[in-house]
């Protein structure tokens, strides 16, 4: 590690420590569940693993093993330690296995995700039919977050430990084997699996697996056969088990095999058969199986034959030649939702053009889009909006990049313009008739590596051309240094000169999309150009032709279409029978015409007129070779690029061979995380607070006139003061102010119990679990008034103080109301664990400018930023600096929320804990340099971050490593930030719900520094170079495997001094927040408005088939809604409007059987047919298939039949005419 | 009234290889000399015509108008020419060029079906087409269930000394009590007994069936919302009653089926699924051909229990498995297949869950548009369910969606796909075609419960499960007809092997069944 990195981390840790000290002092004084901070700091993975598991000694052993072996091997090594009792304090065999399995999963998930604690419920010892013991591992749903490898290895570790402690293998009963097969299939149907093993495969695994996989029921759907088995205690699908079996064992068999081979104690010879797919033969017990086996083999052979044929075909030279193209994929269009538009159909002309590169706010599952395009798609795309995409991955977060080409549009006045400025986009937006081309779409090389996707043919862009130019022998350095030359955006004659002088391909700026034009259309276009004339438009503009000339063609639909297809800027003036092209020289030369000075008729020559220029066609149709005439991808002759190359006096490369289809996924997010409904305090008030859960109301509530107001019966944990014996529900004794402890009793004999070392409380006599939860009367009024007084606030300090109905934690310890009062005062709400959170969509950024972060150079310098990315001293707001790994950028909303939280914390420290305030912020600039926690759902570890600035985009920009440390990528994922002291002061494990998944999304441990080798390795695949080599671009035309191309990715620097630095980018962007701040999806009001806008946009986009969009919206949104609601209507439950009681069927009395109140339907006519008319209208307007229309007709008649009285039909006005 | 004329005309036309429009037959029958008129018409019809149309008759008759006027007044065949028509729809000329299949195809003697329409009779009861008055309000649901209790309860009230639920609560502990009500809830207790909650118009009352009592077997058969009577004794605190006996509305053991007075047969089929890629056109054509043979000359009625066509949008991505994607074309094609059936056979059909009507039951018969498409053979189109009485033999026709539920809920030995008629027995026993609400079957609330089996039918005819099965329950013949659709991918995936291409033929004079196989 470089010294400056060390300084950076030490600085963060110092800051963390001083906040920790404040929090520790506060905790000692307050009435919190624990008198100390409950988030332990982990400096490395070993710490995290130990803290998450709560098993002492694990960290030390992990550190010992880490240098010597891989993590997987370490997990097996630790299994030996557990078995031998060297680690962990377990007496039973089951305990040892459990400890080893949990540790293995924690280790393999780097101690970040909740799977080791939430995903493994327990390990039991059961008996085989021969009386021997075997191990049963009880998995739960959250094992999902561990991923397949860790799931599979958990089984291996369980088996290894089993062997070491001396137990037998599991011998599955026949019905259990069958049950596994049925259940895995059921789970796949209900929830879906990434990989679904065939029944045979499942049975094979079940038969051979040496430990029993079991788990909790996760779904409602039950298996139909093999129910009520003795050793399986549910008839529902056990989700955790299914995941481990299918996505773990079945999918990752080769990985497990690598480790079983090295272990003498255990032997999984069947893995080889599983990998080879030999499980068909294995049975051989019944004729039936045998027959199936043959069938299976037969299929396999047939497939093999097919493959051979295919490869032979591939080798054969008789395959028609054509340009390299990727295959279209429609997957991303599935489940299209109303209101979320399609931007481009698969590989459609006019769609986004693939450009390779990484912008500084890019990489790690993101897609760079030009901000002008964001505006032109009616603001549906904003920074952070998720799109579902055709390739290379499935989804990506959108980032604004303005150093790529913008979209080209046709305006109502006939102008066809490329829009490279977001301001222009806004100005002309109302006049856009058609979006001919969406512009470029930036994807970095690393995305292809991460998704293991073959490289797609690259667009011809500046960064490739300049390397072509150099390869052609030009002195590029000299050209770059020449102040009169703009290499990236040259004048037309410069471009022509380079193309001819160096024999390099024509500059991309003047390379048009010839490959989208058919050879026939190209011929026609050439003919039209040859007929064209050069005019002086007289506007004095030089237009880069060296004069103010303009090419004028006769107005013609075919010509206009061709010009729109190749996306060249021009003006269509059909009324004046002319089409004008400004930068005409490269275009004219590309179609094989030569401008010639014409000898004009002397008599007509006006004195001020220069000689006419005539365009001479240099080729005839017969000159084109067979190859050029038939060149094409989908059909012969649909691609004119070869023709262009034959007739033009220079080489022309395919400008945009790869288009990428995509549609909107989720909108971006930046909002505070509230429980639903939002709560200020985790203090229970039952029903007394009304539907608002208003504590003030509860304080006045009385069931009857004779009750004392404010007395509410509540379930809370009983605490006992050790010094004076007082019983209370508070963490401090109200009498002597000593700390209290939970008072556990046996529910049967009321014996007072003490928890054992493992934290379990059990009554020895009755063998029942003890509890401290009791129902008692609490004077909410007293508590509320007392709390107000203790923090010195009055009731008018806040609008409303919301509590919770009841507590869901194990010991039901309420939070002090004081904290809620102060939260309410500052209008922040509490999450289930007592913290205040703010959610943002994750986006990556590796270099930033002070100017875009609303901070000044001084502030950056104060944070340790001294040099810009080029090593120059940092003196100016516009200089780019490389972002440090734990620095984050807050959205405006997050900053506002953090300020409120800081005020709350300051008041809390002063008014509740009696300490000095800590933050004392005046405005948001004070937030710069402050620490926060980043915390992602499904994980249990927070990562410390530091605020560096602000952005108007509704996202959380941070270093990709920061996101990866939280186990997130940036494809539309979102997670939260918490203010450091809020987490330290207010988080308590005691508040967490006592249910499956309750410990997820809670900071059970925090990482104070990021170790790049301990983060999600997806981030290691991000490329970190400033230029991709020419070989890379050439390789894309071969659709090479990305691994075979030499572009440096972050992985290369792992474990070196450079691991925190050197994240270079190929493309800059003016500002990390450009384009709309919010997607139109969020600003438009109703679903109908969104859908109208979606369909309207689909009409404008050349790359979108609006009928298909309408079909899909109807198919995936309206029809399921209509059909589902109609079905629900005719089998619905009913509910009492007065007491809320539900009835499976309408009571025969008509009234509520519980309270006599009014009963009504839960599904009404209105909810059934709300989309009917809209759907019919859309189907009609967008010309959907008769099939779709008829489905709607049939449905409409069904609705009429059910909701209209045949004898009293609603009559239209015509009945009265 | 003598009705020979139309039938004889049809018979004559058929024997010469023509089909005829109903109106054309009427006109011919109404002519002064039908025999001569028929000859003239046949001379005049174009060579390629397969169907004698009204216009042919008109042209032929008007050409010889003068002749006709002078002709001697032969016995005027008066009387109602079209006894079986009540739908009131005008027949429209169908498109006959495509496939109004000539009856002679198939080779076997397309024969002299010497049928005698005069002795036919056909009545419909319980057709709710055009009678759907429910508007989907809460009250509609309440009244339909009340109607069920009233009507089926009425059948039980004579058998037990019943009391309202609220009255039972007030009776002294240990009393002997009885109650009639809808099953509201069935659950097992921790000790393995069964708790059944009965509901009547006053409220609910829990009944306990002890696990060691003889009646415990019947608990397996119970479905929610069926009507039951229970007898037993009240517990000491009057909070629950112990069941001594329970009664279903059931078919009386004394039931004696009616039969036809002559030897006449009906073909009972269902689930044709025209439009599906798996529709078995060959089997259907063989069936139609067979009907033209002498062997089938006694088959004078054809009952179709739903799913004429495969439909559109019945399941996701159905269009990929359709042969005919257009729903109207599906019915047109079906109509063409129907035309292959001898024109003198009376056809009655009800819709099924694939048809283009509402899915919620009762399902009204097809709307005017679809009726017009299928008008060529002039079938009677009535609601699902409906009862049709053929020469005194009543046939309850119901498509059979609830069979899925009966089979799923009841133990395998009591109801299974292999013996679909056994599942039907339970519906007969419960006297309701789809008792359970809220599950698989959908209910559209109407003012009365059309799904109640009010009168005991002689034959109960269903389809839907694509399995052939028949048998008698208390002398009621239950028939589940097979289908005309080969195994679909879906059926393959769930291992259902359909009985396709069978036509059960019932002798209406004996209620004996013979099964004809066409695949």
TrEMBL record, chain A:
Any idea where the DNA polymerase II large subunit DP2 N-terminal domain is? 7-276
Note the superkingdom of the native organism.
Archaea
Instruction: Give the E.C. number(s).
Output: 2.7.7.7, 3.1.11.1
Q: Where is the DNA polymerase II large subunit DP2 catalytic domain?
A: 796-1090
Q: Where is the composition biased (Acidic residues)?
A: 279-318
Q: Which residues form a coiled coil?
A: 55-82
- Reactions listed under catalytic activity: Exonucleolytic cleavage in the 3'- to 5'-direction to yield nucleoside 5'-phosphates; DNA(n) + a 2'-deoxyribonucleoside 5'-triphosphate = DNA(n+1) + diphosphate
What are the entry keywords?
Coiled coil, DNA replication, DNA-binding, DNA-directed DNA polymerase, Exonuclease, Hydrolase, Multifunctional enzyme, Nuclease, Nucleotidyltransferase, Transferase
What are the boundaries of the region Disordered? 279-327
Pfam families reported for this sequence: PolC_DP2_cat (PF24846), PolC_DP2_central (PF24844), PolC_DP2_N (PF03833)
Domain DNA polymerase II large subunit DP2 central, residue spans: 326-753
Alphabetized GO MF terms: DNA binding; DNA-directed DNA polymerase activity; single-stranded DNA 3'-5' DNA exonuclease activity
For the biological process aspect of GO, one term held by this record is: DNA-templated DNA replication
Q: Where are the transmembrane segments?
A: none
Primary role: Possesses two activities: a DNA synthesis (polymerase) and an exonucleolytic activity that degrades single-stranded DNA in the 3'- to 5'-direction. Has a template-primer preference which is characteristic of a replicative DNA polymerase.
The record's family statement is: Belongs to the archaeal DNA polymerase II family.
Quote the subunit structure annotation.
Heterodimer of a large subunit and a small subunit.
Full protein name: DNA polymerase II large subunit
Lineage of the source organism?
A: Archaea, Methanobacteriati, Methanobacteriota, Stenosarchaea group, Halobacteria
Automatic annotation (TrEMBL), chain B:
Q: Which GO terms describe its molecular function?
A: DNA binding; DNA-directed DNA polymerase activity; single-stranded DNA 3'-5' DNA exonuclease activity
> A Pfam family name for this chain?
DNA_pol_E_B
GO CC entries: DNA polymerase complex
Domain of life here? Archaea
Looking up CDD domains in the UniProt record yields: MPP_DNA_pol_II_small_archeal_C, PolII_SU_OBF
Q: Which Gene3D superfamilies match?
A: 3.60.21.50
Q: What's this protein's function? A: Possesses two activities: a DNA synthesis (polymerase) and an exonucleolytic activity that degrades single-stranded DNA in the 3' to 5' direction. Has a template-primer preference which is characteristic of a replicative DNA polymerase.
Instruction: Return the protein name.
Output: DNA polymerase II small subunit
What is the primary gene name for this protein?
polB
């Amino acid at each position: 590690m470089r010294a400056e990195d060390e300084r950076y981390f030490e600085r963060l840790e110092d800051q963390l420590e001083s906040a920790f000290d404040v929090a520790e002092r506060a905790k000692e004084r307050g009435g919190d569940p624990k008198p100390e901070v409950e988030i332990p700091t982990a400096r490395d993975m070993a710490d995290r693993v130990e803290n998450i598991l709560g098993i002492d000694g694990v960290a030390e052993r992990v550190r010992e093993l880490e240098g010597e072996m891989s993590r997987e091997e370490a997990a097996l090594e630790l299994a030996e330690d557990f078995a031998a009792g060297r680690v962990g304090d377990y007496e039973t065999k089951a305990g040892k296995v459990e400890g080893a399995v949990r540790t293995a999963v924690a280790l393999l998930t780097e101690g970040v995700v909740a799977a080791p604690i939430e995903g493994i419920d327990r390990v039991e010892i059961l008996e085989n039919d021969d009386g021997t013991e075997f191990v049963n591992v009880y998995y739960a749903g959250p094992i999902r977050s561990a991923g397949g490898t860790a799931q599979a290895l958990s089984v291996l570790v369980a088996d290894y430990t089993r062997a070491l402690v001396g137990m037998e293998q599991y011998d599955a009963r026949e019905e259990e084997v069958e049950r596994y097969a049925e259940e895995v299939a059921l789970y796949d149907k209900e929830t879906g699996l990434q990989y679904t093993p065939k029944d045979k495969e499942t049975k094979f695994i079940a038969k051979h697996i040496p430990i029993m996989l079991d788990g909790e029921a996760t779904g409602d759907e039950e298996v139909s056969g093999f129910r009520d088995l003795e050793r399986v205690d549910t008839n529902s699908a056990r989700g955790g088990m299914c995941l481990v079996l299918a996505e773990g064992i079945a999918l990752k068999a080769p990985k497990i095999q690598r480790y079983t081979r090295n272990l003498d104690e255990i032997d999984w010879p069947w893995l080889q058969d599983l990998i080879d797919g030999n499980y068909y033969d294995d049975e051989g017990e019944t004729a039936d199986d045998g027959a199936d086996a043959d069938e299976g083999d037969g299929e396999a052979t047939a497939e093999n034959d097919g493959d051979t044929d295919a490869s032979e075909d591939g080798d054969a030279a008789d395959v028609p030649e054509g340009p390299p193209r990727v295959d279209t994929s429609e997957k991303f269009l599935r489940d299209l939702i109303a209101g979320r538009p399609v931007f481009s159909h698969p590989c459609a002309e006019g769609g986004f053009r693939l450009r390779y590169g990484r912008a500084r706010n890019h990489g790690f599952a993101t897609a760079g889009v030009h901000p002008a395009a964001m505006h032109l798609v009616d603001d549906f795309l904003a920074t952070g909006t998720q799109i579902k995409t055709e390739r290379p991955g499935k989804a990506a977060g959108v980032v604004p990049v303005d150093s790529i080409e913008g979209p080209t549009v046709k305006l109502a006045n006939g102008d066809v313009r490329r829009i490279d400025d977001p301001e222009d986009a806004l100005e002309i937006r109302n006049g856009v008739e058609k979006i001919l081309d969406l512009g470029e779409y930036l994807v970095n090389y690393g995305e292809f590596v991460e998704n293991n996707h073959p490289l797609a043919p690259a667009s011809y862009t500046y960064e490739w051309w300049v390397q072509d130019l150099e390869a052609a022998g030009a002195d590029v350095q000299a050209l770059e240094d020449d102040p009169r030359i703009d290499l990236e955006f040259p004048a037309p004659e410069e471009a022509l000169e380079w193309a001819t002088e160096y024999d390099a391909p024509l500059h991309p700026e003047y390379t048009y999309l010839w490959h989208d034009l058919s050879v026939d259309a190209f011929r026609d276009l050439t003919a039209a150009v040859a007929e064209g004339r050069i005019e002086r438009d007289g506007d004095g503009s030089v237009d880069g032709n060296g004069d103010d000339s303009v090419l004028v063609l006769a107005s013609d639909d075919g010509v206009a279409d061709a010009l729109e297809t190749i996306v060249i800027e021009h003006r269509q003036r059909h009324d004046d029978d002319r089409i004008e092209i400004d930068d005409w020289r490269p275009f004219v030369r590309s179609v094989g015409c030569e401008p010639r000075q014409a000898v004009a008729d002397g008599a007509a020559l006006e004195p001020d007129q220069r000689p006419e220029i005539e365009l001479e066609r240099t080729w005839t149709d017969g000159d084109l070779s067979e190859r050029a005439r038939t060149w094409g991808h989908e059909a012969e002759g649909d691609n004119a690029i070869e023709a262009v190359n034959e007739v033009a006096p220079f080489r022309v490369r395919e400008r945009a061979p790869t288009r990428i289809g995509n549609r909107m996924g989720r909108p971006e997010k930046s909002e505070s995380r509230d429980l639903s409904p939002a709560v200020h305090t985790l203090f229970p008030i039952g029903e007394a607070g009304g539907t608002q859960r208003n504590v003030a109301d509860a304080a006045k509530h009385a069931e009857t006139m004779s009750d004392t107001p404010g007395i509410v019966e509540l379930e809370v944990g009983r605490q006992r003061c050790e010094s004076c014996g007082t019983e209370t529900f508070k963490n401090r004794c109200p009498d002597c102010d000593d700390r209290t402890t939970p008072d556990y009793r046996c529910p049967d004999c009321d014996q007072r119990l003490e928890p054992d070392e493992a934290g379990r409380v059990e009554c020895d006599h009755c063998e029942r679990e003890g509890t401290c939860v009791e129902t008692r009367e609490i004077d909410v009024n007293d508590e509320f008034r007392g709390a107000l007084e203790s923090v010195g606030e009055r009731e008018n300090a806040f609008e409303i103080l919301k509590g919770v109905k009841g507590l869901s934690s194990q010991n039901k310890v309420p939070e002090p109301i004081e904290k809620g009062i102060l939260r309410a005062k500052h209008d922040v709400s509490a999450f289930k664990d007592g913290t205040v959170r703010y959610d943002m969509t994750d986006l990556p950024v590796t270099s930033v400018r002070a100017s875009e972060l609303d901070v000044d150079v001084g502030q950056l310098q104060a944070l340790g930023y001294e040099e810009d990315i080029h090593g120059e001293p940092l003196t100016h707001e516009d200089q780019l600096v490389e972002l440090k790994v734990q620095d984050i950028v807050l959205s405006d909303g997050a900053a506002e929320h953090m300020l409120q939280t800081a005020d709350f914390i300051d008041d809390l420290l002063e008014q509740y804990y009696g300490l000095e305030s800590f933050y004392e912020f005046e405005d948001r600039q004070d937030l710069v340099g402050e620490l926060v926690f980043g915390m992602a759902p499904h994980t249990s570890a927070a990562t410390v971050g530091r605020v560096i600035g602000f952005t108007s985009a509704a996202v959380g920009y941070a270093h990709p490593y920061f996101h990866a440390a939280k186990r997130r990528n940036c494809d539309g994922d979102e997670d939260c930030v918490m203010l450091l002291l809020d987490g330290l002061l207010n988080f308590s494990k005691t508040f967490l719900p006592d249910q499956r998944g309750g410990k997820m999304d809670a900071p059970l441990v925090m990482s104070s520094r990021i170790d790049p080798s301990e983060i999600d390795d997806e981030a290691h695949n991000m490329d970190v170079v400033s230029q991709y080599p020419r070989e890379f671009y050439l390789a894309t035309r071969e659709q090479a495997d990305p691994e075979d191309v030499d572009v440096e990715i972050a992985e290369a620097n792992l474990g070196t001094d450079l691991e925190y630095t050197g994240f270079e980018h190929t493309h800059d962007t003016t500002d990390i927040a450009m384009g709309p701040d919010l997607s139109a999806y969020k600003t438009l009001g109703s679903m109908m408005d969104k859908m109208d806008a979606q369909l309207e946009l689909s009409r404008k986009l050349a790359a979108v088939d609006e009928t298909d969009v309408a079909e899909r919206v109807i198919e995936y949104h309206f029809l399921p809604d209509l059909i589902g609601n109609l079905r629900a209507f005719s089998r619905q439950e009913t509910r009492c409007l007065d007491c809320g009681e539900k009835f499976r069927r309408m009571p025969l009395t008509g009234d509520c059987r519980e309270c006599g109140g009014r009963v009504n339907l839960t599904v009404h006519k209105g909810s059934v047919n709300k989309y009917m008319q809209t759907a019919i209208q859309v189907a009609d307007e967008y010309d959907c298939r008769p099939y779709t229309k008829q489905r709607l007709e049939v449905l409409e008649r069904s609705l009429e039949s059910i909701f209209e009285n045949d004898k009293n039909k609603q009559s239209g006005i015509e009945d009265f005419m | 009234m003598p009705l020979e004329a139309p039938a004889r005309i049809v018979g004559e036309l058929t024997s010469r290889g023509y089909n005829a429009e109903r109106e054309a037959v009427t006109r011919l029958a109404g002519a002064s000399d039908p025999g001569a008129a028929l000859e003239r018409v046949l001379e005049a019809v174009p060579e390629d015509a397969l169907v004698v149309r009204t216009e042919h008759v008109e042209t032929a008759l008007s050409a010889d108008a003068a002749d006709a006027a002078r002709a001697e007044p032969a016995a005027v065949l008066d009387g109602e020419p079209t006894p079986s028509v009540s739908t009131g729809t005008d027949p429209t000329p169908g498109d006959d060029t495509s496939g109004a299949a000539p009856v002679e195809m198939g080779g076997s003697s397309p024969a002299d079906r010497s049928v005698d329409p005069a002795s036919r009779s056909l009545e419909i009861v319980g057709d709710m087409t055009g009678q759907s008055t429910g508007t989907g309000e809460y009250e509609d649901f309440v009244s339909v269930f009340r109607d069920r209790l009233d009507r089926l309860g009425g059948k039980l009230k004579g058998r037990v000394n019943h009391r309202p639920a609220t009255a039972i609560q007030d009776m002294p502990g240990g009393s002997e009590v009885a109650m009639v009500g809808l099953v509201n809830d069935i659950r097992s207790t921790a000790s393995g007994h069964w708790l059944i909650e009965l509901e009547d118009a006053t409220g609910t009352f829990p009944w306990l069936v002890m696990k060691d009592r003889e009646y415990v077997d019947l608990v397996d058969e119970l479905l929610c919302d069926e009507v039951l009577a229970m007898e037993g004794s009240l517990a000491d605190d009057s909070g629950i009653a112990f069941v001594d006996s329970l009664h279903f509305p059931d078919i009386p053991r004394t039931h004696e089926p009616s039969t036809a007075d002559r030897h006449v047969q009906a073909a009972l089929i269902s689930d044709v699924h025209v439009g599906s890629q798996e529709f078995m056109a060959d089997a259907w054509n063989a069936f139609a051909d067979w009907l033209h043979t002498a062997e089938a000359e006694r088959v004078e009625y054809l009952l179709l229990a739903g799913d004429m066509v495969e439909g559109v949008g019945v399941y996701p991505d159905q269009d990929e498995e359709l042969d005919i994607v257009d729903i109207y074309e599906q019915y047109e094609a079906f109509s063409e297949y129907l035309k292959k059936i001898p024109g003198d056979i009376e056809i009655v059909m009800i819709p099924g869950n694939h048809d283009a009507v509402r899915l919620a039951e009762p399902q009204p018969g097809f709307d005017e548009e679809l009726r017009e498409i299928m008008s060529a053979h002039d079938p009677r189109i009535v609601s699902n369910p409906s009862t049709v009485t053929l020469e005194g033999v009543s046939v309850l026709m119901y498509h059979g969606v609830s069979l899925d539920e009966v089979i799923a809920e009841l133990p395998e030995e009591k109801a299974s796909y292999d013996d679909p008629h056994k599942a039907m027995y339970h519906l007969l026993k419960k006297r309701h075609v789809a008792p359970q609400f809220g599950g698989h079957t959908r209910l559209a609330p109407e003012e009365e419960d059309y799904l109640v089996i009010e009168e005991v039918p002689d034959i109960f005819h269903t389809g839907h499960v694509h399995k052939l099965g028949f048998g008698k329950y208390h002398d009621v013949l239950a028939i589940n007809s097979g289908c005309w659709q080969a195994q679909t991918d879906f059926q393959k995936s769930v291992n259902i092997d359909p009985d396709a291409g069978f036509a059960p033929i019932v002798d209406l004079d004996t209620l004996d069944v013979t099964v004809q196989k066409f695949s």
